[in-house]
Amino acid sequence: MILVTGATGSIGTHLVRLFQEKGVAFKALVRDEGKARALGCDVVVGDFDDPGSLVPAMEGVDRLFLNAGGAQPVDGEQPMVRQQKAAIDAARAAGVSRVVKVSVSGAHRGGRLAQGAHWEIEEYLKASGLGWSMLRPGGFMQNFVTGTAGFTADGKLLDVYGGAPVSYIDCHDIAACAAALLTGSGGLGETYELTGPQALTCAEIAQELSAALGRTVEHAELSPDELAAGLRAQGLPARFADDLAELSRQVASGSMAATTTAVRDLTRREPRTFGEFLAANAEALRAG
Ligand SMILES: NC(=O)c1ccc[n+]([C@@H]2O[C@H](COP(=O)([O-])OP(=O)(O)OC[C@H]3O[C@@H](n4cnc5c(N)ncnc54)[C@H](OP(=O)(O)O)[C@@H]3O)[C@@H](O)[C@H]2O)c1
């Protein structure tokens, strides 16, 4: 039996759908049964913030898809680290044999925000004795639909990467890679850097959005210093604002421009282009 965590999220909803299409036996760990009803699958209630709920939720589970929310610090702590370590402890106690974890591109010791948090969890998982595979995706195409990518008040797409290209990936492809690892025997002890098929600049993304929406989407540059000042003005902690500014400097220097063949290697098909992603999400895009 496979347990899918983060099942209501951007990656998890695709993974649930893929398993349903393929008739794979799985259940989803959810915090809110009512919210999860739309998934149309077996669920078990559990919360990463309640370690006592996790071991019973993993009873009879052989493989775990480990994923949850982002890495915004709360009172200087990264809740994700504590939460995912608790899930790994529960998996070991429940006799899970293998964990497929969603991490982040460029995870490293001492990295800012998600890069440091995911690295710490990766190391904990590697030391746990459980079988593991790491998926390290870059920026999600979904960010342009969910609002995670910033827009100005008058609807301009914010370029916080100084015109540098980013090889955005569709969460559909991340889920397909996870499905291959959760249902197959390959990839044990492997780390996969996942990207889309091409790196796009903000100007190119704005052009694609314009074509999909049938109206002009403009873009506006925001320097890392302006980004940090804006976040501080919104009341966000200075450290968080500075970390985000530093990450945007790194991306501006080309740190997320490379593409890999990992999606093709794992799924035997090409990852979706940004245009294909927009076509598959036309309804959500127009509603957003
Ligand atoms: N956005 C990007 O560009 C990007 C790039 C690379 C890596 N990542 C990584 O991707 C991950 C986010 O994936 P995603 O976008 O699929 O997530 P998401 O859409 O933000 O969804 C988060 C999921 O985690 C669940 N969750 C949150 N807190 C939980 C808790 N305490 N206990 C149990 N479940 C909980 C949520 O359930 P509810 O429905 O109950 O809220 C939801 O299903 C993060 O680790 C992030 O660092 C993101």
From TrEMBL:
Residues 2-278 form the NmrA-like domain. Pfam families: NmrA (PF05368). SUPFAM superfamilies: NAD(P)-binding Rossmann-fold domains. InterPro entries: Ergot_Alk_Oxidoreductase, NAD(P)-bd_dom_sf, NmrA-like. This is Uncharacterized protein YbjT (DUF2867 family).
